[in-house]
Design a protein that fits this description.
By secondary structure, the protein is an alpha/beta fold. The chain has 17 helices and seven strands.
């Protein structure tokens, strides 16, 4: 029943397609027409316009059907039948292409493409008429993944956790506010890094940090050996109360910035080099001696800088008690710095988020991907070193 084409006809068709502005699009248009022609004639039982006793129904014109593809949007002239109806087989599989489109939009969203730019992105893919509203509906499908990630069970023990804050502009109760968003990462007992939490805070206080750590404990976390963070008083107190016996390491990078804020610009570079030398020492005694030398040299010229150093030095050297670990990995929150930069790169595209939900949807989706890279990469700290440090802590206790 279906029409047959000889070799010369196909050659003519190919030459015709080669002359089109978009050969692949033209070929796809022709192919869909031929597939509908063959399928509909099989369903009718006869070629259009031919009388036969095998006919089961008759053609009755056509109807326009939009069909989005990766090559562009097609407008199909789908044959209409008097009885039985007809839908092309490749159109019934359209849900798959819709899902693929949703995944493209979600991936673009995660990578920092704002909803205002999604429509242009869709057009560049050859898909017409997708609106910012439709994009928002699609991205909300990420909510289930985000909710599962933020509430998933945690391991009982994380030897080291890092806590750091991001500040974002978020629309809340009809006004734009700067809101703190805490990101918590940890080292598992196997030595791999893991994203533990991404939690918004209306303000930074002991109470809000206590709520953050309580949520971690509700998800299964019981023991932490060392928490690395900046010197927020509320955070430190909350850590001490939430995880008894947990050490606290003041981030040396934040600490050095606090000290250098009291040094003149002219001498900041030289002072910073001598300050960094404190954290290059192999032992706590050597580090304290290096700090005393710096105090002796600059005590009279920069008294406030030296006072800040003396006040916080002990907390900034706690990492030395964990001799089995690479000190560079646990003496600061630098392990979160690259992560935070990537988060800001994505959030900067949006600017002001319309709601906290929209922010968490974007950032947590990215954290899920980042965490997957951590889980499949090399161990951050060897498991044998973790077991060695565990034994040292048990003997000290």
């Amino acid at each position: 029943m279906a029409r047959k084409y000889d070799t010369s006809t196909y050659k003519k068709l190919l030459l015709h397609f080669m002359g089109e502005s978009d050969p692949l699009y033209s070929m796809l248009q022709w192919l869909t027409e031929r597939m509908m022609e063959v399928e509909s004639e099989l369903k009718v039982g006869a070629v259009k316009g031919k009388h036969t006793s095998d006919r089961t129904t008759h053609f009755s014109g056509t109807r326009v059907r939009r069909f989005d593809t990766r090559l562009g949007t097609l407008y199909l002239l789908v044959p209409k039948l008097r009885q039985g109806g007809y839908v092309p087989f490749f159109v019934t599989e359209k849900k798959r292409s819709e899902q693929a489109l949703i995944q493209v939009v979600q991936e673009a969203f995660i990578n920092g493409v704002s909803t205002r730019k999604m429509e242009r992105l869709a057009r560049s893919l050859g898909i017409e008429g997708i609106s910012a509203g439709q994009v928002s509906v699609m991205t909300k499908e990420l909510d289930d993944q985000v909710a599962r990630f933020r509430s998933r069970p945690l391991e009982r023990e994380y030897p080291v956790i890092w806590v750091d804050a991001l500040y974002e502009k978020i629309r809340f109760d009809g006004r734009v506010i700067s809101m703190a968003v805490m990101v918590v990462a940890g080292i598992t007992s196997e030595g791999r890094r893991e994203i533990l939490a991404c939690e918004p805070m209306m303000n930074e206080s002991e109470e809000t940090y206590r709520i953050l750590f309580d949520k971690l404990k509700q998800r299964g976390l019981e023991t932490v050996w060392l928490c690395v963070s900046d010197a927020h008083t509320g955070l430190r107190k909350a850590v001490q109360k939430a995880f008894l016996g947990c050490g606290w390491q003041r981030c040396k990078v934040h600490f050095m910035r606090n000290i250098l804020a009291h040094v003149s610009h002219k001498e900041k570079s030289l002072f910073a080099e001598k300050l960094k030398a404190i954290w290059l020492q192999p032992t706590k005694e050597a580090a304290i001696q290096a700090a005393r030398m710096l105090t002796s040299e600059y005590g009279d010229r920069f008294p406030q800088a030296i006072a800040t150093l003396e006040e916080g030095l002990e907390d900034a050297l706690q990492y030395l008690a964990y001799s089995s670990f690479d000190h560079r990995k646990i003496s600061s929150t630098n392990t979160l710095e690259r992560l935070n930069r990537e988060i800001r790169r994505r959030s900067r595209v949006v600017g002001i988020f319309p709601s906290m939900d929209s922010y968490l949807r974007l950032i947590t989706s990215y954290l899920i991907e980042y965490g997957e890279d951590w889980s499949t990469g090399k161990c951050y700290i060897k498991q044998s070193l973790i077991e060695e440090q565990r034994l040292t802590l048990q003997q000290a206790a």
